[in-house]
What does this fold into?
Amino acid sequence: MPTDPKGRDQPGYARHVFICGHERPEGASRPSCKKRGSLELLSAIKAAGREQGLENIRIQKSGCLDFCENGVACVVYPEGTWYRLSPDIDIKSLIENLKNGTIDDDLLMRFDE
Ligand code: FES
It folds into this structure.
């Protein structure tokens, strides 16, 4: 069976996590996730994922996910789970949920907050 340079025999991941890294200029009419620390959060989540042995789960920066008022916006596929992240989240718990395919209820994006 043919494989790619990483030894994979088909494209895709068990879970694919996008964290918004978009930044808007001062005075923009909408907020942006980068100004809320999304890139630092992304780095911390990726580092924790490596430490906790996350496998076949891709965590990466995205452009604007268009839920800017509820950011830092994060979406996890294939489930389509939407999270609102902030610098004080329990990253270890998030990683465990990603590993197990479960939902981190504390982080779900809700419009009533
Ligand atoms: S700037 Fe992050 S969702 Fe739009």
